[in-house]
C-alpha cells in the first residue's frame, strides 16, 4: 500500500504533562495543518511553552501522544525537519551573525548561498559581519531565527518571537512568517498578545493548561460576536466559566 502523508503536520492526542509535581497540561488534543500559521495563545503561565516543548520532543510527557510529520515527536529523523526557537535568543556573542548562522548551516551541510538566504530572510544581511554582542535584543532574536531557518525545517516552532520587538519589526517578522507558510512551511507561533492572532490562519487558545478552542480568528469573532480578538478571547473565557 502506498504511504500517504497526512494533511496534519502535528497531531496532539490526550496530552498530560506534569512539571515538578504540578499538572501543567490537562488532556490537550489538537491538530496543526501543514503549511498553516497556527497561533498558540493564552495568558502567561498557561502552558504554551510546555506544549511547544512537547511538540519538539524536549518535554517528558505523562500520557497521551504527539505526532509530528507522521512520526513520534522528538524522534531522530525529525531533528532536521523541525526547527525550534526558544524565548531566550541563543546565539554566540563572540561570533558574527554570518558565523553564527554558518555554524548551524554546517550541521545540515548547507551551502554559503543557503546561509546567506537565511540571514536575508530575517533582514540581517546588512549586519552579517557584526558580532553577537554588538546586536540589539530584537536583532539577536532575528539571528536566532536565522539559525533555525538555515536547516529549512518543514515545521518551525517559535516561542514568543515578537516579544520586545518594536511594531515595525513585528509587522516585518509576520510578513516573513507568511512568506514561509506560503512556501509550505508549517509555523507554530506562541504569543500572549491577542492582536497578533490575526496573522494566524488557526488559533489554539489556552488557559490554565487546557485547550479552550481550536478555530480561526474569524470563527472566534463569529462565535463570540466580538470584533476585537482580545475581547473575543475574554468572552470565550466567560462562556467557559459560566458553563462550568
Ligand atoms: N521548569 C519548570 N518546573 C516546574 N514548573 C514549571 C517549569 N517551567 C514552567 N513551569 C510551570 O508550568 C506552567 C506552564 O508554564 P509555561 O512556561 O509552559 O507557560 P507559558 O504559557 O509558556 O508562559 P509564558 O507566556 O509566561 O512563557 C506554569 O505554571 C509554570 O509555573
UniProtKB/TrEMBL annotation:
Tagged with keyword ATP-binding: yes
Pfam families registered for this protein in UniProt: ABC_tran
SUPFAM superfamilies associated with the record: P-loop containing nucleoside triphosphate hydrolases (SSF52540)
GO molecular function: ATP binding; ATP hydrolysis activity
Keywords in alphabetical order: ATP-binding, Nucleotide-binding
UniProt cross-references to InterPro entries, sorted A to Z: AAA+_ATPase (IPR003593), ABC_transporter-like_ATP-bd (IPR003439), ABC_transporter-like_CS (IPR017871), P-loop_NTPase (IPR027417)
Domain ABC transporter: 10-233
Keyword Signal in record: no
Protein name: ABC transporter ATP-binding protein
Amino acid at each position: 500500500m502506498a504511504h500517504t502523508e497526512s494533511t496534519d503536520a502535528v497531531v496532539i492526542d490526550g496530552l498530560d504533562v506534569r512539571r515538578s509535581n504540578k499538572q501543567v497540561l490537562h488532556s490537550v488534543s489538537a491538530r496543526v495543518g501543514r503549511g498553516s500559521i497556527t497561533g498558540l495563545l493564552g495568558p502567561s503561565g498557561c502552558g504554551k511553552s510546555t506544549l511547544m516543548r512537547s511538540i519538539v520532543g524536549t518535554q517528558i510527557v505523562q500520557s497521551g501522544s504527539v505526532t509530528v510529520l507522521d512520526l513520534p515527536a522528538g524522534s531522530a529523523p525529525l531533528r532536521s525537519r523541525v526547527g525550534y526557537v526558544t524565548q531566550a535568543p541563543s546565539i554566540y556573542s563572540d561570533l558574527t551573525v554570518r558565523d553564527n548562522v554558518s555554524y548551524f548551516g554546517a550541521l545540515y551541510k548547507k551551502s554559503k548561498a543557503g546561509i546567506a538566504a537565511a540571514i536575508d530572510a530575517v533582514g540581517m544581511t546588512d549586519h552579517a559581519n557584526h558580532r553577537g554582542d554588538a546586536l540589539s535584543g530584537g536583532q539577536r532574536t532575528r539571528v536566532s531565527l536565522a539559525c533555525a531557518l538555515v536547516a529549512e525545517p518543514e515545521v518551525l516552532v517559535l516561542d514568543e518571537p515578537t516579544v520586545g520587538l518594536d511594531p515595525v519589526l513585528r509587522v516585518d517578522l509576520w510578513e516573513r512568517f507568511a512568506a514561509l507558510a506560503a512556501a509550505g512551511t508549517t509555523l507554530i507561533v506562541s504569543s500572549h498578545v491577542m492582536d497578533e492572532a490575526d496573522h494566524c490562519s488557526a488559533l489554539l487558545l489556552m488557559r490554565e493548561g487546557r485547550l479552550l478552542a481550536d478555530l480561526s480568528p474569524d470563527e472566534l469573532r463569529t462565535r463570540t460576536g466580538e470584533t476585537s480578538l482580545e475581547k473575543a478571547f475574554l468572552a470565550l473565557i466567560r462562556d467557559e466559566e459560566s458553563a462550568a
